[in-house]
Design a protein that fits this description.
This protein has about 100 residues and is mostly helical. About 45% of the residues lie in helices and about 5% in strands.
Length: about 100
């Protein structure tokens, strides 16, 4: 699963090691929480996603973010929504979303 580095902070940031973006931190926290909730180790999640343990650990440390296709695979594997993983929704279960009205 291809990963890309987490976005860099704004150029005004003090020199030194780059800090993870708020998006990367939120993703990292929710990835770890969803993995732990399922009772999986980083190794188990990596095997299920067919990626390296290094990628999982780096994502949980907010050092990298998956590409869109990777984000979708992670969310599906953990049975959460992509919006939840990105911090756009507080509800992790997409089945709890209100149903769209049917067209008649």
């Amino acid at each position: 699963m291809p990963y890309e580095p987490a976005p860099e902070p704004a150029p005004e940031a003090a020199p030194g090691p780059a800090l993870p973006s708020p998006l990367a931190r939120t993703f990292a926290e929710r990835l770890r929480a969803a993995r732990v909730y399922r009772g999986w180790s980083p190794i188990e999640l990596a095997l299920r996603l067919e990626t390296s343990v290094y990628d999982i650990v780096q994502a949980e440390l907010a050092q990298c973010m998956p590409h869109v296709d990777g984000l979708v695979r992670i969310a599906q594997m953990l049975h959460v929504s992509t919006d939840y993983m990105l911090g756009l929704d507080v509800n992790p279960d997409p089945r709890d979303y209100p149903k769209a009205p049917s067209r008649r």
